[in-house]
Design brief:
- A two-stranded parallel ribbon has the order 1-2.
- It has 118 residues and is mainly alpha-helical.
- The longest helix has 22 residues.
- It contains 5 helices and 2 strands.
- Helix 2 crosses helix 3.
- It starts with 8 loop residues before the first helix and ends with a helix.
- Helices cover 53% and strands 5% of the residues.
- The mean pLDDT is 89.
């Protein structure tokens, strides 16, 4: 689930239509790299501000956003605190408006990738 693959939109659409749960791996790592075009969604100013609004980390907010898309993010952490935070992500009351803000961040990330590929 990252910009270079178009956030797997086509695959997620197929999964939804087919009654299949889409699972994402590398959800946080792939979206938090400053040096990689399109990979800064998690560390963007918009996501950081929204995380502060909800009193969570950007990682927790991003997991919540992804869950709202119907994606099941796979968690590879061995850190008990991070696991607890990630489980509680489903309790973040993300509004449609704030979800749309994150949609815009992802669109920007996709544009960065397409410009880089040109």
């Amino acid at each position: 689930f990252y910009a270079k693959t178009g956030f797997e939109r086509e695959m997620r659409t197929w999964c939804t239509a087919s009654g299949v749960h889409f699972q994402s791996f590398w959800t946080l790592t792939a979206n938090s790299k400053r040096c990689r075009p399109g990979a800064g969604a998690l560390i963007s100013e918009e996501v950081t501000k929204l995380a502060e609004k909800y009193g969570v980390t950007p990682q927790v907010l991003f997991f919540r956003y992804v869950m709202g898309l119907g994606v099941v993010p796979l968690n590879g952490t061995c850190n008990e605190r991070h696991m607890d935070e990630d489980i509680r992500a489903r309790m973040v009351p993300l509004t449609q408006e704030d979800g749309a803000t994150i949609d815009g961040v992802l669109a920007h990330c996709e544009n960065e990738v397409s410009v880089e590929s040109s």
